[in-house]
Amino acid sequence: MRKEKIQNNIVVIGHVNFGKLITTNHLSYKLGGIANLIIERFERKTSKMKKCSLKYTWVLDNFKAERERGITIDIALWKFVPYIVEGSNVLPTKTHYSSSLLFIISSSSSDF
């Protein structure tokens, strides 16, 4: 008998600069979705820039401007396979209060 794979779609919604990406990536790291070597490499790079708290955001913040300014400019879809669940899609979003309700309604029926 073939075991059915579990698929999770996670959309993180919150106001701008409320730590959605840091929280999501830290949780992913704790669940085994991000390797220690990656976090250690970003920790070294962020400490040189005196921005150690941003080591988790650099996993998805790929643009130079995002890393220098400490903000997320573009959304990023990331697939990872932690040891607790078989597959997850994570989509941290950048929203303002006025569009949060629309995001909640849209993401409840999203399929990515």
UniProtKB/TrEMBL annotation:
**Is-annotated flag, keyword Nucleotide-binding?**
yes
Question: Which InterPro entries does the record associate with it?
Answer: G_TR_CS, P-loop_NTPase, T_Tr_GTP-bd_dom, TRAFAC_GTPase_members
Which parts of the sequence belong to the Tr-type G domain?
A: 8-87
**PROSITE patterns the record matches:** G_TR_1
* Entry keywords, A to Z: GTP-binding, Nucleotide-binding
**Pfam families, A to Z:** GTP_EFTU
The molecular function GO annotations come to: GTP binding; GTPase activity
Annotated protein name in UniProt: Tr-type G domain-containing protein
